[in-house]
Amino acid sequence: MRFVLLAALGLTCALPALAADLPPKPARLGLCAACHGETGMAQIPAAPNLAGQRLDYLRSALKDYRDGTRNVPLMRTAIGPLSDAELDQLARWYSAQTPQPQAAAHP
């Protein structure tokens, strides 16, 4: 019983520290959130979930969309004007989010 109490106390003390490690919400999140959700869980069927994706993958993909290497006009339009620093903020934000289970579609 003592172990359980100590573990619970340790977890309670660690939670604020873990929350402090989350990156700040990017100022340019709005357009992304319209399709991918603010926490990276897609809002529309064609959009992929971004929550919990690898940081290096997201950085690379965002730059490829912006620069036209990945030829997706909607993405290029949405992130075309963003700087490398802004893309990095978005990648950090989405990679730090925790994926959530999807609700089952009802026919």
From TrEMBL:
One of its GO terms (molecular function) is heme binding. Residues 1-19 form the signal peptide. Keywords: Electron transport, Heme, Iron, Metal-binding, Signal, Transport. InterPro entries: Cyt_c-like_dom, Cyt_c-like_dom_sf, Cytochrome_c_Oxidase_Subunit. PROSITE patterns: CYTC (PS51007). Residues 20-98 form the Cytochrome c domain. SUPFAM superfamilies: Cytochrome c. Coiled coil: none annotated. Pfam families: Cytochrome_CBB3. The keyword Heme applies. This is C-type cytochrome. It comes from Dyella choica.
